């Protein structure tokens, strides 16, 4: 049993309703440092809604989410987030490199310049994602797999302490999917991972915990 001082996220009695329809009901979930937590469940079961509540992108109808660092309440954590591709507006006029740079902008003041070190981080990530030759291409001209790799690069570029991924294998070709899971294995050695997936064969081998969400939560492993 992990020590309570190692908890970093606490989802406490969270419920969510849309026009009286229950989306999530009485969710209690504690995430511990170094967890590789896989969240599974049917379409419409509330998996993405739970991630959005954890990220502060969606307010729950009831309950709260708390962050911790070294056993003490924390205002926020360094979180990298890979959303589902279908929530991205590919018409937005932004290039591949600008998307990856945006993964470093959370801690910067408006109009601050990126340092040489940060520029090197982005260059390294573009190479790692196989996107160096596409750096100046608008995202509207990318294939689904190229856009997914761009978004993964944005999620990873800040070396987050928590990585949250929503269906990361969607649209990715099989060759890069293998590489992606290798990368996640490396990331999991130094960060906590929360991953939503329907494809459980590979990720369950990597996970130390699996939960199922279908409006309520069931701990599978």
Structural write-up:
The protein is α/β, with parallel strands linked by helices. 28% of the residues lie in helices and 29% in strands. The protein contains 6 helices and 10 strands; from the N terminus they run βββαβββαααβαβαββ. The strands form 2 sheets. A 6-stranded mixed beta sheet has the order 6-7-8-3-9-10, sandwiched between helices. Strands 2-1-4-5 form a 4-stranded antiparallel beta sheet. A hairpin with a 2-residue loop joins β1 and β2.
Query: What string gives the helices and strands in order?
Result: EEEHEEEHHHEHEHEE
Strand content: 25-35%
Query: What strand order characterises the main sheet?
Result: 6-7-8-3-9-10
Largest sheet: 6 strands, mixed
Determine the mean pLDDT: 88
Helix content: 25-40%
Q: How many individual helices?
A: 6
Taking all Cα atoms into account, the compactness measure Rg is 17 Å
Backbone shape: globular
* Strands, count: 10
- Tell me the distance between the termini: 13 Å
Low-pLDDT runs: none
Secondary structure class reads alpha/beta
């Amino acid at each position: 049993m992990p020590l309570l001082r190692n908890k970093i996220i606490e989802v406490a009695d969270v419920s969510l309703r849309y026009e009286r329809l229950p989306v999530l009901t009485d969710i209690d979930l504690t995430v511990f440092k170094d967890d590789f937590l896989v969240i599974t469940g049917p379409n419409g079961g509330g998996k993405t809604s739970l991630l959005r509540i954890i990220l502060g992108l969606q307010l729950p109808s009831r309950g709260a989410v708390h962050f911790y660092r070294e056993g003490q309440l924390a205002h926020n954590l360094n979180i990298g987030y890979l959303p589902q591709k279908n929530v991205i507006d590919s018409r937005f006029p932004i290039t591949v490199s600008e998307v990856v740079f945006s993964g470093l902008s959370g801690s910067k003041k408006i109009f601050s310049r990126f340092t040489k070190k940060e520029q090197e981080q982005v260059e390294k990530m573009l190479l790692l994602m196989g996107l160096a030759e596409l750096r100046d291409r608008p995202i509207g001209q990318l294939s689904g797999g190229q856009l997914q790799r761009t978004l993964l690069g944005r999620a990873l570029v800040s070396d987050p302490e928590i990585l949250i991924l929503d269906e990361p294998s969607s649209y990715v070709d099989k060759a890069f999917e293998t590489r992606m899971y290798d990368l996640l294995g490396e990331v999991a050695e130094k960060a906590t991972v929360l991953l939503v997936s329907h494809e459980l064969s590979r990720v369950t081998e990597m996970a130390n915990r699996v939960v199922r969400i279908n409006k309520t939560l069931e701990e599978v492993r």
